[in-house]
Amino acid sequence: MRVSVLLFARYREAAGAPILEIEVADPATLRAVWDAVRQQVPALRGEARPLLACNRAYARPETVVQPGDEVAVFPPVSGG
Amino acid sequence: MRVSVLLFARYREAAGAPILEIEVADPATLRAVWDAVRQQVPALRGEARPLLACNRAYARPETVVQPGDEVAVFPPVSGG
Amino acid sequence: MPGLFRVVRESLRIEQAMEAVAGPDRGAIATFHGTVRDHHDGRRVLRLEYHAYPAMAEDVLSQIGREVQDRFGTGHVAILHRIGVLAIGETSVLVAVAATHRAAALAACAYAIERLKAIAPIWKKEHYADGSAWMEGSAADPAP
Amino acid sequence: MPGLFRVVRESLRIEQAMEAVAGPDRGAIATFHGTVRDHHDGRRVLRLEYHAYPAMAEDVLSQIGREVQDRFGTGHVAILHRIGVLAIGETSVLVAVAATHRAAALAACAYAIERLKAIAPIWKKEHYADGSAWMEGSAADPAP
């Protein structure tokens, strides 16, 4: 299963790209997606607190990703 | 001793004038000034909570008025 | 001390209050605007009239600014109150406080408007279709 | 639901936020402005850069508006966040809340900015004379 993962802020800089295309076994959880992202981007391997989002809402690692879902991973927020 | 007393809001309407000139025995306290004001303006006789000011600062009824002091009496405030 | 404390007859402009408090070393500005409501206690209000003891009111607003400095550590305070006849929706009072951090700015702004309502020698008269009435607060006598 | 929730590249104008929330049945408007400070933790800051996940951020700001409605009983909320490069003194975030009474407006405004900082997917990068650093908050993971 192919998933496009949106990256933001420091994660985007670490990956050198705003979107990563990854392959994960179907059905895939957000945790599996994140593991695949870390596999592809060594600089993110030590990340302890990634935030995960599915379809523009925060989601837990157990969430199962459906084809066409908008998936994103990013570091703790700091707006304001 | 002659004292000019500034009136505001409802007290001013009750007196029909922004300033009352009153005569009080010297030395006079703010309480004596207020009593003289009520003597002169019957509509104010029932007032339970007048605020008193001397030289643009809130003052207690025991405060002794000096010649030239700016004395004012007015109802509870309601700005904002 | 920095700060702007005025009782005025002209329309209040938020820009004036913001400019008086803003600065490069402050990351937060909190403001409060009191505006004229079209109702009060279920009764329709047509307009408001504010009356003040202007000289004392400005002294009291400055005193509130000093209290904010003592309690919240910032002197960047603007408190403006309008007097005269105001239409529905017009701004009667404006408070702006700038501080390094947001907690101080927000708390100081709330404090300043509470104090203004309790001690500034300013009065509000409500005008209705069939008459008018002076409002009078219930705060304790501010005398020391 | 009334309200204005935007992530934008243009300068933020307080008038826009005020107009979005004001109305004749509301007597109080509280606002909060976050502005770019020239220092942070003792270090001189030259400018800030804000980055966002704009679509999700606007959804989250709208959600904060619904939380304000549930907790404080007013839906008259505007939350605007700017992204891109900001100079010292520029406004990065604007919150405005209008309510019938001042207590609700003030408390809701403070609540909204706290929530924004905790959950809006927006990030700040500080630029110094000799480099830059992403800021990252310490709030709990917002996942349900």
Cα shape of chain A:
globular
Uncertain spans of chain C: none
Runs of chain A in which pLDDT lies below 50 for 5 or more consecutive residues are: none
Main beta sheet of chain C: strand number and arrangement?
4 strands, mixed
Q: What radius of gyration of chain A results from the CA coordinates?
A: 12 Å
Q: pLDDT average of chain C, as an integer?
A: 95
Number of alpha- plus pi-helical segments of chain C = 3
End-to-end Cα distance of chain C: 24 Å
Mean pLDDT of chain A: 96
Number of helices of chain A: 2
Strand content bin of chain C:
35-45%
Number of strands of chain C: 10
Count of strand segments of chain A: 7
Question: What is the chain-wise order of helices and strands of chain C?
Answer: EHEEEEHEEEHEE
Topology record:
The complex is a heterotetramer, with 2 copies of chain A (80 residues) and 2 copies of chain C (144 residues).
Chain A: E1 2-7, H1 9-15, E2 19-23, E3 28-29, H2 30-40, E4 51-54, E5 57-58, E6 64-65, E7 71-74
Parallel strand pairs in A: 1-7
Antiparallel strand pairs in A: 1-2, 3-6, 4-5, 4-7
Chain C: E1 4-8, H1 14-21, E2 28-35, E3 39-40, E4 43-44, E5 47-52, H2 54-72, E6 77-82, E7 84-87, E8 91-99, H3 102-119, E9 122-128, E10 131-134
Parallel strand pairs in C: 1-6
Antiparallel strand pairs in C: 2-8, 3-4, 5-7, 5-9, 6-8, 9-10
Structure in a nutshell:
With 80 residues, chain A is α+β, with helices and mostly antiparallel strands. In chain A, 22% of the residues lie in helices and 31% in strands.
